[in-house]
Fold these 4 entries.
Entry 1:
Amino acid sequence: MQEQVTLLHTEAQQSSARGATSGLPIDLIQESAERLRVLALLYAFIFFMAGVFPAMMTAEERAHFFGSVLLWGPSVIGIGLAIIVALVIRRVSLPTAMNLGVAFEIVSSYAIAAAEFADPSMLASHREHMGLSWVSVWVLLFTVVVPTSPLRAVLAALASVSSVGVVIGLVMAFGDTSVRVTPLEFFFALVFPYILVVSMAYVGARVVYRLGTEVKRARELGSYFLEEKLGQGGMGEVWRARHRMLARPAAIKLIRPSLAHPHAGASDEAVQRFTREAQVIARLRSPHTVELFDFGVAANGAFYYVMELLDGLDTDSLLRRFGPTPPERAIYVLRQVCHSLSEAHSCSLVHRDVKPANIFLCRYGEEYDFVKVLDFGIVRALRDPDDTSTLHTRKNEVHGTPAFISPEQALGTNVDARADIYATGCLAYWFLTGQFVFTAETPMGLLVHHAQTPPAPPSSRTELPIPTALEDLVMACLEKDPANRPQSARELSCRLAELQGANTWTQDRAREWWAVHQPSV
């Protein structure tokens, strides 16, 4: 199961996100902000191609265009504003982004109206069709592409479409033009059509808003509401969630039943097995195992775990951003991993997917470099000898991540806790070198390497110094024969503790690293 998820949470982020929802899911609001950026760039491009480029064709046209600020001014203002919005939209909070969007809709509409009607000579040429403006198209497009609450949408639409009447009214009142209309003509040419436009915008806003709220209701799982998708992998999705009654944030992993139990779907038997395994996982008390708050089965048959929401980054992201880990820090992290695995193994749980993306390094209270092991039991628990269910792993089925899979997993044979020892060796190799133990063009090639190919020592894959004793221990974990590896996570932890320099990575060093490289938001 390939998956990389960073469960990052801060109070400021959550408060800002809630303030921007307006009844819509946070991720849909975030998508709206991104669409606003694209829409602003599209506005600038079209405005240039339709309003500026044609005036550049001949010297006479250029002289006429730049000879009046009423001709070039609206274009400059509209295009400049659109570019500014596109540049800053990613750098502001969601509430600010949505407020900026409303302001952009209104000002950009006035820029369109001014480009069409501000020059008295142009107004005269539009005498028979002065009420038909591109503003109406822009308002309808904006309302659908950048959704918000219906009330907010209709107020913004009213302010936007007023641009046509305001600009034409000012030109007729103060400009040098012979165009004159009666109040009744003004109403039916410049007011009534835009009342219809606002009505259509309101209907569109209500439809989009209702779809968003239906999505929001569909994301409710028991007492939890899914707020924002944090990641997606082979087995399902991870969401930031909020409890209806409690202030405690959480992360929810949704597991698609077709992947968790490909031969059974969400049958009663599958639900029973899932419940039994979740109850076992919930009993794990190692501080280095992600805490399970709740579990259940959604209406669509998807299984879900409710877990603590963590502040930090997974070790896959750690190495890709900052490079290989110093040996003393690797030992510090690996011992915490072993603490989690040891308790799980004592409860007859084999992780079978130990990999950097499932090892989370975080700030935990006043602790730094505090390890949380994720995804326990999501694949399966060790077979209960009293359980005759056919839902457990079948012979010759391969589970796990190819780059971190044990030889016995690669061969599809039965596994025990020593498969996790092998994967921990692959994890240590990754920490020390920043490289996988084996590489291949296909997943099957990786499986063959893990099953048959002797690994190269870590020191041959990096220029960084690696203590000989640590390298020997990593190579022992990578033995093809499980009998030649450390026989338990507890044994591996003890051997790591005996290595020279095992205690040189301290909380002071960890705190200093976090202050420099991963400061609190």
Entry 2:
Amino acid sequence: MMYLKPQEILKRHKKAFGAKENWRTIYEECYQYALPQRNLYDGYYEGNIPGQGKMSRVFDSTGIHSVQRFANRIQSGLFPPYKKWCRLEPGNDIPNERKGETQQALDLYLDKLFAVLRQSNFDLAIGEFLLDLSVGTAAMLIQPGDDLNPVTFTPVPQYLIALEEGPNGTVDNVYRRLRVTGDAVARQFPGANISPELQRMIDDKPQEKIEFCEAVVVDPERKDYCYHVIHEKTNTELVYKRMDQSPWIVSRYMKVPGEVMGRGPLVTALPDIKTLNKTLELLLKNASLAISGIYTAADDGVLNPNNIRITPGAIIPVARNGGPQGASLAPLPRAGDFNVSQIVINDLRMNIKKTLLDDTLPPDNMSARSATEIVERMKELAQNMGAAFGRLITETMVPIIRRTLFIMDEKGLIQLPLKIDGLEVKVVPISPLAKAQNLEEVNEVMQFFQIANSLGPGGVAEIKPDAIAAFVGDKLGIPASLRNSEEEKQQIQQQAMAMQQQMMMQQQPPGNEQPQDQAPPQEEPAMALEAEARS
């Protein structure tokens, strides 16, 4: 692939954002009703006043609360803070005799990895990342940091990015709209090639924000990525460099073939959220009518309608309240009462919570649940997520680990000689959701172990206790430092056999041993004669 000029990058950037406009209606309503605080579709990015109220059209908070619960449950189930939620294991290309020592080395790398993650802002960034994932598409930028924070994680709202898909449905190219104040351009892009025209703009208005086009484009021939930062107004390129890995982590909750952007559970729950919101809006209007009411006033020369104020406790002077001409002030009859809303509100709220996976744990006011029930509910959550669980592992967890280890290797924090490609090194999730699924396999093995033991010698012959123990340890994510290596296992077996032989010798009855003071047995006559003849 040849070098792409700034004009070509800007052309592809514009085309990608133009194709994304087809999604604007869906995503805009999702953010408006369920994520109003992260809504950039209302014009804030275009220059409106920051800090404006974004909930003027929201009358019910069920969608907002359920989306927060969705992000919190996914984070606690897949990326629990201050816990190890994955494990590095040797792949199939590693020989069996080397897997033990390889596993010990990978455990050391894993400890350093999670030490860096705990020191960074990962736990904060993944929460915002999962909020955008509820809509359908989430993006995160993982870049090298400083000495204090070696890796920085920046969740980017999907409003600011546009995607281009490659073969097999993977995201290859990412375009981003980026605004930076003039005096921060040099710090944002160290070593940038700033043109004289752009420098004059920075000098004239250093506090004014300047918009750039940031692009990461794959090179299919060299198998690397080209990084561009272009100033659109001056049509100049500030930064161009090649990278072995893309700094972007883009995940889609669910994807339809032929579409680049994803569709999340919030898109499914949007009709119920809009219906519930409109129902409560009408209910509040009906309540205001029931409190204040609408009245008709007779213009009889005594009552002045312009001076009437309908407030509690007010006394309105009238000429009469009855008579042949009717009352001077009378309430206006309404068409009906809107009490039917109470019938559907609860059903709508339950549907919204089910769609956003907000009904998996028992209420707080219920009695304490056992650990078994909590595990079963975690398994139910994993089953309800369906294909999204595998997509989260493939498009989120594995790329985050691969990118973080790559940055740590570049900084000299580790020296990882193997590739995380599933063949040399594979990423195995050990988060609560993954453990809930692994427990099913562990239970099946333990049931087989119990049944085989009950079948007598024939069933016991089918069992490999060492292999079963290793299998359970792998499924539960037990580190290699707590388990014996192959050499240690052989030493333990030899010691056990030696102790067993010693115990058998000690348990022999005394009659079988020959007394030391007993005379040697007499030789038979034939043997004695033969010995005498030889002599």
Entry 3:
Amino acid sequence: MRVSLRLKRRLAVGVAAAAIMVQPALAQTGGQPPVPAGEEASPDVVVVTGIGPARTADELIASTSVLAADDISDRLSGGLGDTLNGLPGVTSTAFGPGASRPVIRGLGAERVQVLTNGVGVIDASSASPDHAVTGDPLGAERIEILRGPATLAYGGGAMGGVVNVIDGLIQEVLPDRPISADLYSVYTSVDEGRTGAVRLAASAGQLVGVLSMTGRDAGDLRIPGFAESARLRTLEEEEGEEHEQEDPGRLGNSFVQTQSLSGGLSFVGESGFIGVSVRRADTTYGIVGGHHHHEEAATAAVFSGGAAPLSFVPAGAADEEEEPFIDLEQTRFELRGGWTFSEGPVEQVTGSLSVADYQHIEFEAPGEPGTVFNNEGYESRIELQHAPLMGFEGAVGMQASRRDFRAIGDEAFVTPTVTEQTGVFVFETLKQGDLGFEGGLRLDSVQLDNIIAGKRSFDTLNASFGVHGHLTGDLFLGATANLAERAPTDVELFADGPHLATRQYEEGDASLDTERGLSLEATARWENGPLELGLSLYAFAFSDFIYFSPTGEEEDDLPVFVARQDNADFTGAELTARYALGDGLGASWSLDGALDIVRGRLDGGGDLPRVPPASAVIGVEADAGVFAGRLEARWADDQTRVADFELPTDGWTVLDLTTTWRVSPGVDLILAGTNLTDEEVRYHASPLKDLAPMGGRSFRVGLRGSF
């Protein structure tokens, strides 16, 4: 895809106007120690996207998960959502191997901000779960999941949290070596997949260049049995539907092919840096469940009974098998830099500018393009961190973005809309003896201009406050309160058309009001000797919560889903534990575990759709120097608290084993097995849960090197 002339002009203007702008991570990304996959950040890890003064994880009120590059490669599983799935409070939309977005504490879409280097990804992933996230975990240097008061600096309404993918293309400190290389290659048996990544970095004087290439080629997933769930097959039989099952043991049309090429060039001085980067990504993947052999009459029969599942209902009758797929491409430019000052009221200035040109085409079959989705836009931010003032340390900033989203074709369920947003924010911290206080305020102006419905404008307020303290040397306690307001999206306001991938006819409501939410969270962390414990209790109370609800009616042989608002509550808890078992059999041993519970309900009665069930993980690790291993059991409960037109989901337990052999300095051989018992795994948060399970037993062989 060619970058449009308008986008080129914006980039040129932005480079001139934003020469002092950078992202809020000045001189903090180099040399950070890795964090074991699935664990909370170690107290000596600086969270680089944190607004205001640099703080270590033990000073943050809300739990923060951090994955370094090695941890990402150990967890790598398809898209961003699947890779992060299983971290505390995190699950995935799992729309097949090609598309997955993180769901945090039962909240997804716009309530979880997905960023690249602190600014928005500028794609179409929040518009529909079948649209892939362009944030690439394979090429990431680091991924952070942030919660709590500081998230308001990255956009209003991020009640679930912020996921920041840091690609490291623009280096902020001079590297230790003038030339370095990182390599990663892996083969997975479940899809006969081949994945690879190469990263090269070189410096000359104060210039640092980075080149990164990633790619993945995977076939259809092997699955333990039928693609459709037993509950769905039983329902079809009860409704008298003629059903033709496809290839047991194989998830049809689940192939994925991706490739990206990116590079960055930075100038790093004693007091700051400035750099530019460009990334080109191309992805082709099948829309799982997009072809059916069901009869047209079955749709009406199922819905007339009033108990049809949310994830069922075929996309009309299909006399011939179709293999729809998405061809996605994005070109993204970024400018980032920053400067520190030795004296004066301002300690540092940081900011960033990102410009992206995104397009994906949904093909009904090879050679038959259907709908084209385009999203051109930019996002910029600037942040000034002030010197300590009467004990207060913090920052003020401004953020602005513009997105031109257009869909053309038979499945253009949203008419062209331009969304512009401008926000200002302030965040402050205060230390008083053993207690710490932090709080922030953000004001946003959002305007959506639809080609048919016209303009809607919203002014939103986000505010947060937290208090924390180390009551003893072992015990940390914290509490936060957040008030969040979110403007409706273009899909929620202006959708009106068939959406075949999700098997819905979606109707927005142009009269929707601002969504408001109040969240309260209490956190406790205790560490004494070999034992570490963490507990978070949280509650979200929403007024005018926006969600799509089925009406029981049909349009174009699809069930109609209408955007509605109602009061809703989410409550939950996260418990983590780790115990150092000591040395034995030539290795150091440790045991860890986590438990997640979340419940989402409408105030008027009834459960919200796609809220994940209770889940837990327990693992044992051994490190013997040249060898390291982890045996992990993951469990999810049955989910029987379901919304109207939604089927329950059976629970599951899986066993994973990962081993790493350090064959030479800087070179690791990875041998791993996932879902070793070949369980049928379905994520309740996935719209495809009754049509597409996760992969079955898989073995992985990989090589990772750093030179």
Entry 4:
Amino acid sequence: MGYTVSDSLGVGVGFAVFGLFAFAPGYTFGWFTNVFEFRRCRLATRIAAAVPISIGLSPIVAYSLWRIWLPLVWIVFGASGIACAALLASDWRSRKLGLLRSGRWVLGIAAGWLVVGALSLIDIQLGNRLYFPFSTYDHQTRAAFTAALTRDGVPPHNPFFFAGQPAPLRYHYFWLILCSLVNRLCGTVVSARVSLIAGTLWCGLGLLGVIALYLRFFGEKRSDQIERRTLIAACLLLVTGLDIVPILAWDAVGHRIVPTIEAWNEPVRAWISTLLWVPHDLAAVIAGLTGFLLVWDAAGGEKRRFRIAGVVGGGLAFATTAGTSIYIGMTFAAGCALWIAIALLKRWWRPALGTIAAGVLATLVLMPFLFQLTHGAADSAGTAHSFPVSLTVRSFTIPDLILDSFSPGKVASTWKTLALNAALLPVNYFLEFGFFFIVGTLGVRRIWREGLRNQAEWAIAALATASLLLCTFTKSTVIGPNDLGYVSALLVQFILLLWAAEMWNAGELGFGPLRSGRSAGKPGTDRWLITATLALGVMGSCYELCFQRTFPILSDMYNVEKVPWLSHDQLLGQRTFELRRAYEEMDRMLPRSAIVQAAPASGIGNIQAELYSGRPMVADLGDCGTVFGGSQEYCRNAILPRLSTLFDDRRPVTAKEVSDTCHEFSISVLLFEDDDPVWKDKSSWIWKTEPILNNGFARAIQCDAGNTLHAGSNR
């Protein structure tokens, strides 16, 4: 269990150090600016607020300071940490947490998340087999980006493309900056991959914190039963849609195990899926929600300096949102634009002007990043990229099956598919939202009956409408998956979560006595449906939590259908174990700047290299990852033909070819793996060359400048 233990210790150290960026700045900012009347709040409220405020402020502050001079980052965050420690110590002596039973349960849920989250993401070692979780599908590229930030600074370079000189990274990497800073502080104890896990744990705490903030400062009931309402919302995080129904049907019909509940349809992700797969998107949502709440709270402030602090904090948080997830940033921009229009029409001047000012500040602060992002879209060959967003109707698996049944083997026309998708949107969203679809229906029914009664309800309606429109009728075109459609739903999911907590607490869902003077529906009639969707929603989250952790193990040890990117055989665990050992050994042998190049894999690339190497590559991710920066034309015409020749067995390779290729692309070591074609040819040149490292799954051959390979004459 050596790697499991070392990962666990690394996550613990990384989590503690991450507090310097994910807790201390928020507590210090709140105390000195008194946003949310911070100094008058209970200690528990201050602690809950500190995490989302930090997630909103730290990434953009770190980005801006690092661009100027890295030591400024350490000075500012170090001072913030010292101030936070002094303030927290003083506050702890004067105020105890004083939590009620519901509050202690929330604290228990937070502690439970830390344990479950860590165990879900670290490597599990079983003897000489090592298994990463299935969510590594999304994590491996971000581990490489984090390592690139640690290595290159801000702005970083694309770690998957090197054409004699690096290409600037075109990606929303603000959350990864904090992970990189933890990696820099802790060195080899907390690798880039482990720092990502530590950051994910803080994102879970940030989600609980921003839920408590909105229930406390945005809802009608303010501090009334705040701990009970927060507990209800925290428990409802485990409820997702009805994905478990089609997934179990798919499992039964196909006699297989589907490793994630999000695989059957264009997903509205479960909260547990968002946490484990795309924590940077969740960090962006937390930052955006915190920014909006800061501006909202500032509009009601009496003192000008408090209003200015709220608008400045909100603007910085909005900037973090866009730099952490550009698609979440677009969603909040659309929601805020709609809210500003409503506020101006109703002459609510303070909220409108405050939101406008925060948006202008965010744009100004983001200018260097936006310049890098947009100008990196044209590669060195001058190729222009298409507009990153287009119109559509949200995809639905069932229409595809229906159309295919009428015309097997034929591709249905686009308009027929779109029309059927549009007609079946209620069914699609009922399956994806489940319990929360019912909550939304009850909430909309109430609004239809009573109207929107105050500014808060108008603001919520604006944000929810923008989120729903974007996730329904737009798609991103940069890569195959519709990332914009996936993540833009998170904002309306959060709003439905708040509605559900308030309805449950008021007894409007049929659980417990009715505490309000109205009913959102007919609890006696609807309760069976609500209970069924709740149960199925919890089952879906449990399925996701279980199989995203265990599927690689099951795939390796039992006769389970193989996933192509994971492994084609039942040697995944042994291969991962030996490759991680190989990369650690090369870390001891080679300088950090040395390029170690494995076969440039297609699809999501060479997983073990991205997770454990922490080094730049000449090519990976298919077209050298040029979607993240670099010339696709140069990759296809110059890099891939030269590299693929070294790793395939189609023709003999001379020692001069190997040396010239290594010299041209500054490669220090070529790493050959057991599933490379050249590996299987025992007469190939790699078996006639002395390796610097060799095991049953990896063979490393040094080929840096000045080193001539001594291969056989027939190479």
